[in-house]
Amino acid sequence: MKNKNGESLVSRIFTLRNMAVAFLVVYFAIFLAYPIFKAFAGSLHNWNPLIGTYDWVGLDNFKQILTDKLFWTSMGNTAVFAGVSTLFRIVLGLGLALLLSAKLVKCKDTLRGLFYMPTITPLVAVSFVWMWMFDPQFGMVDKITGLDINWLHDTKWAMPAVIIMTIWKDFGYATVLYLAGLMNLPRDVYEAAAIDGANSVQIFFKITLPLLKSTTLFIVITSLISYLQAYVQILVMTEGGPGTSTYTISYLIFDQAFQKYNFGVASAQAVVLFLFTGVLTLIMFKVSGDSEELA
């Protein structure tokens, strides 16, 4: 088929496809590849854009951060924040998905929407609301629980407060993914298990969990990558305090770059975070592949 100018429909499709590919290549180069390259290059320089400093220092920035106590404190805080938040996201998400998939539960679509709503709510707005809720004088948390804790100004409770807010906002994401996974599980396997006399606990641990392994792995990877980069809730709720009790690596990078304008050190920290995230993801995919081969 040809148009008035003799151009075939197939050639037009190929032209549009080439334009789309070119657009993606340009987008990737400008917004992904260049920032990564700039961060790697900046990590090797003493870089302060305010005064125009961009002097080569080699690996000095990496030596500085690896001997910096605050860097390791922030890494430890990040590990706690990411690990606990991911764990509860999975447990609550799976538990709620199992509940919503039960035959006795009514209005399932409405409940799914309600539980997923916090996930799509802007994080800044949620952080401000929870900051008010944790207020020891006016907040609802102490009034409902009967506790008397100054959550965001206590070194022992500031990080748990941020984690609680993060879990509340994010567990709906895991719930929706687990619901999709549960709906696609083969029914014949459960019928065979019931005929063999397996109880509900055995069915859950021997059948349901293994069949949801790929979904769980996806949630773990995406959650860890997201939480390793978390800083918005820290910035709004605690600003890294009290002291350094809620400093995470991403907030430390933000502090170095946009508060102290030490972009060289911030870039070195970002490179370390980038490499750590990449290695962690590769390990998880490797573990997943090995477990599938054994299965």
Automatic annotation (TrEMBL):
Keyword Lipid biosynthesis: no
Biological process according to GO: transmembrane transport
Domain (ABC transmembrane type-1): residue spans on this chain: 75-284
Transmembrane spans: 20-37, 79-102, 114-133, 157-180, 261-285
Membrane topology classification: Multi-pass membrane protein
Signal peptide span: none
GO-annotated cellular components: plasma membrane
Main location group: membrane
Keyword field contains Nucleotide-binding: no
SUPFAM superfamilies xref list: MetI-like
CDD domains registered for this protein in UniProt: TM_PBP2
Cellular localization per UniProt: Cell membrane
Keywords attached to this entry: Cell membrane, Membrane, Transmembrane, Transmembrane helix, Transport
InterPro entries, per database record: ABC_transporter_permease, MetI-like, MetI-like_sf
Top-level taxon: Bacteria
Family listed: Belongs to the binding-protein-dependent transport system permease family.
Stated name of the protein: ABC transporter permease
